[in-house]
């Protein structure tokens, strides 16, 4: 259903909340942005993109307001938003603000200090978001962070303990709709609730199937790659058992067929950083063993064929070259002049010629 023409969007709300002409903090716009973020199924993804752009603004006041919006959303929005902020995609945009390689040399100091303060507070308040801690430690290793910021009590990210969830109902938007339908006494609403439950169960089954395919594919890559690597360590195409050579060839072909499978899995798991990292690691291992096969087997066989061809070319028995036809007589045994009469064919009347 399309939004009314005059309806506010996340983009219009963030523009209002971070307007450089604002004299004071526009708390009503900030809260409206957070509320709409929570109610929109794609809110967290869109919000992080908008915030990343605003935080990198060359205008200090606009960037500082954007960081305040970000801080407020982290405190008042839920797990969906935390997960988006905890992805490298968004964290890299914050790192650009403080890194001298990108915008750090021209970013205002208050903006850089606020970015580091926020990331540090998230490492304390969101220990399950491991990539946030990784990003913070990386900034330390690069010397961008000399010491941990001192956080006042109101800057600590205090979150309520998470409620246990059924994976089927992790979609907050659909869960809210389902709760509203179930609380209704109207028969049509109850029927719609039943259909929605079926739809959510089917989606969960599809997610489970994807996970199963990914796990099985990665396991096959690991097993085939490990076995092929082991066989290649002592591979010798001239001395190997034919059955071993056949197994090596079969494993290589199996590894080649797994590459497009991994590419498809990677495209289906773009929003799952951990699964994507696991797939990319499996692809790296696969590429390594395939290159090893080409070097050990194809390379060695090619050199052996070149050596055989070179030997045959230089052999005395191969003195007849392509393009040069030797006389037939050169292949026949020599016959002395005195014996030639014995080898002449008879004439037509049966008498030998004198």
From TrEMBL:
SUPFAM superfamilies: ENTH/VHS domain (SSF48464), GAT-like domain (SSF89009). Its main location: other. Residues 297-320, 332-354 are annotated as: Disordered. Signal peptide: none annotated. InterPro entries: ENTH_VHS, GAT_dom, GAT_sf, GGA1-3, GGA_N-GAT, VHS_dom. It comes from the Eukaryota. Gene3D superfamilies: 1.20.5.170, 1.20.58.160, 1.25.40.90. Residues 17-147 form the VHS domain. Keywords: Protein transport, Transport, Ubl conjugation. Belongs to the GGA protein family. This is Uncharacterized protein. It comes from Pleuronectes platessa (European plaice).
